[in-house]
Amino acid sequence: MIRDITIGQYYPVESKLHSLDPRVKLVCTIFYILSLFLFNNYYGYLVAGVFLIFVIAQSKVPVSFIFRGLKAVIMLLLVTVVFNLFLTPGEPIWQFGILKISEEGIHFAVKMAIRLIFLIIGSSLMTFTTTPNHLTDGLERLLGPLKKIKVPVHEISMMMSIALRFIPILLEETDKIMKAQMARGADFENGNMIDRAKNLVPLLVPLFVSAFRRANDLAMAMEARCYNGGEGRTKMKPLKYHKNDYVAYMIFIFYIAIIFVIRMVL
């Protein structure tokens, strides 16, 4: 299960999506997620799905790698589908006691599941195709105007970058600790919920110790290099928009225009 978590991982490959400015990917990802809530019919999901397939093809990230990340949230998807299936009001087509399934519940559960899948894949593509350093630079440039009201933009961007960088590191550390504990007879899969929670203690304690040690090492390394925040710092590779970035914006605007047409007409 640990290896199925792909959140925060970067997939190194040459593609048009990898070469885009991180600001383009950040803006488009945010508005793509918002666009999923602008419609409530299958035509909108079809357009969003076609657009997502086009982006996946441009990213050159293997589909198996993308869908592997969905295994980590399959329980969330199931809980969401079940709650919407049984709790959505409507004319029941099946009923057993207080449990009932309506046609409206089926449609709403399917739409919610598709929306969550698109949201997870769409946001994951940004981290698959953008390094943490580029994400930090892009986020800092986008939030640049907030510096005028004394918002610590550089520090916020740095914290997000470090968090994204630590996700795959901690997952790898968790996998190593689990294998070591299982070799000593630990059982993380059998037993009831209380027994499983107790069995996690030998895993969580060394994991937290390792996380604090890594954080301390990083802080000492930053201090040794005289890191003092964003004031007066320059970029070795400053961000600049290129032709492909403007083309990407135009394609995305065309997608948003179609979504608004579907919202207004259908």
From TrEMBL:
GO cellular component labels: plasma membrane
InterPro entries listed in its UniProt record: ABC/ECF_trnsptr_transmembrane, ECF_transporter_component, EcfT
GO MF annotation list: transmembrane transporter activity
Domain of life: Bacteria
Compartments, record wording: Cell membrane
TM spans (from-to): 26-57, 69-87, 108-131, 246-265
Role, per record: Transmembrane (T) component of an energy-coupling factor (ECF) ABC-transporter complex. Unlike classic ABC transporters this ECF transporter provides the energy necessary to transport a number of different substrates.
Family the UniProt entry places it in: Belongs to the energy-coupling factor EcfT family.
HAMAP family for this protein: EcfT
UniProt name for this protein: Energy-coupling factor transporter transmembrane protein EcfT
Gene source species: Anaeromicropila herbilytica
